[in-house]
Amino acid sequence: MHSLSFARSKQRIHEAAEWMPGGVSSHFRSGVSPTPLVFEKAQGVYLHDIDGNRLIDYYMALGPMILGHSPREVIEATKQQLDRGILYGGQSELEFEAARLICNMVPCAERVRFASSGSEAVQLALRLSRASTGRDKVLKFEGHYHGWLDNVLWSVAPHSAAMGPEESPCPCAGSAGQDLGAGTNVEVLSWNRAEQVLERLARGDVAAVIMEAAMCNSGAITPLPGYLEAVREACTKTGTVLIFDEVITGFRVAPGGAQERLGVTPDVAVFAKAIANGFSVAAVAGRSDIMAGLGAGGVLHGGTYNAQAVAMAATVATLRRLSNPQVYHRMETRGRRLMDGFEAAFRDAGMAATVTGFPQIFHIGLGLAKPPVNYRDTVAIDRSRYVRLTTALLQRGVRALERGAWFLSTEHDDEVIDATIAAMQEAVSVVAQEQDGA
Q1: Quick one: which of 195, 235, 229 has its CA closest to 213?
Q2: Which residues are the active-site residues?
């Protein structure tokens, strides 16, 4: 098969670096193989780059584009709102309707506050938890990402040599220039180990436990049977706020997110990405008594762009579409077929790999013999070889994240799934032969 060229993208990134560090606006867009790409347009499941390539997209903008790149109802709703106004510095009926939809869809949502990004919303959830409990300590877990701010960017992707023993992990800062003092009240545990959480919470001084209900940033790992239930019970017993970071799973794996799908309700949850299909919207939803801190409770939360009217129009249109269970049924069926096709491709090539997670967001762990349970298990993934695999896929017209995650949309139909499986079979064969010749 003819390999695609990305020469113009490479050149433009090089030229843009004169004005933008690395030629990009996010750390997570840099350093990809063979080059960061520059796009002209996106339609349905396809991205069109400046080299003239049409690519089947499984980045889906790292998760937000659950209805695809050009959903008619979202585009029409935002165009109509543009004629009415962009930013009011006040409230709109769209904002109220979006909040109502979230409260109807999400199990924990008794009240909602809107924000502009997941990183920001996490900070509000933590502030509300500290105000509600009068405590300062926060527990987070290795491999779980809750935004790029200094107080939560700990042990997101630590090197194995720095992690320390699993029984008492060493917190690892995630960035140069990080304010180490901001992590004073953050403690890190190994996820999916209920005994660690129960033992730590027994001391009665923890404000909040924050976790991805299913670990999707560092592999799509589901909780072990009984794990979430045990943590939920311990938080209730000790008066600790349980926060689910559903920035990825929210409105993606079920209308009510992972909490609905897994059957465990947190006290507070954070949402972004799929909530508005590409518009900059995030939300904190939770128990009314905790959220009341934003009223007379003295908890400050501001934001010029919170609940911006055009973004709220997109939110309402997106959530109305996602209120239909059939939307998820179709994604389940097609996503499962894609996962099965990938597993068969690896098996036929004699290549060790796991395909884990949900049909709407799953992860490939190249080199793993069995599904991972937590971050420490993912350290064994052959990341360099996986990058060679995603590069081979890109050359065959399929764009997939180098970190192993695959995001599905409602627009990945059977024809697209077939084409993707065929591309994967070819790419796996190329990488397997490369290994055999090494």
Answers
A1: 229
A2: 145, 245, 273
344-403 pLDDT, tens digit per residue, is 999 999 999 999 999 999 999 999 999 999 999 999 999 999 999 999 999 999 999 999
Of 268, 297, 322, which closes a domain? Answer: 322
| Structural domain range at position 165 | 72-322
What three-state secondary structure class fits 284? strand
Cβ–Cβ under 8 Å, residues 328 and 251: no
CA distance linking residue 333 with residue 278, whole number of Å: 24
57 and 114 housed in the same domain:
no
* β-bridge pairing 361-366 and 268-271: unpaired
Tokens, residue 299: 């908890």
Say how far apart CA 283 and CA 113 lie, in whole Å: 6
d(CA 213, CA 33): 30
Look up the pTM and report it.
Answer: 0.96
Rounded CA gap, 57 and 394, in Å?
Answer: 10
Answer for the pair 424, 395: CB distance below 8 angstroms, yes or no: no
Which of 50, 65, 7, 83 is CA-nearest to residue 252? Answer: 65
pLDDT tens per residue across span 184-223: 999 999 999 999 999 999 999 999 999 999 999 988 999 9
Structural domain contains residue 2: no
Tabulate helix, strand, coil % of the chain (nearest 5). Answer: 40, 15, 45
> Which positions ≥6 away from 415 have C-beta within 8 Å?
none
Strands of 353-358's sheet in order across? 353-358, 361-366, 405-407
* Side-chain half-sphere CA neighbours of 333 within 13 A: 9
Last residue of a domain, one of 307, 322, 337: 322
Q: How many distinct structural domains can be found in the chain?
A: 2
CATH number at residue 271: 3.40.640.10
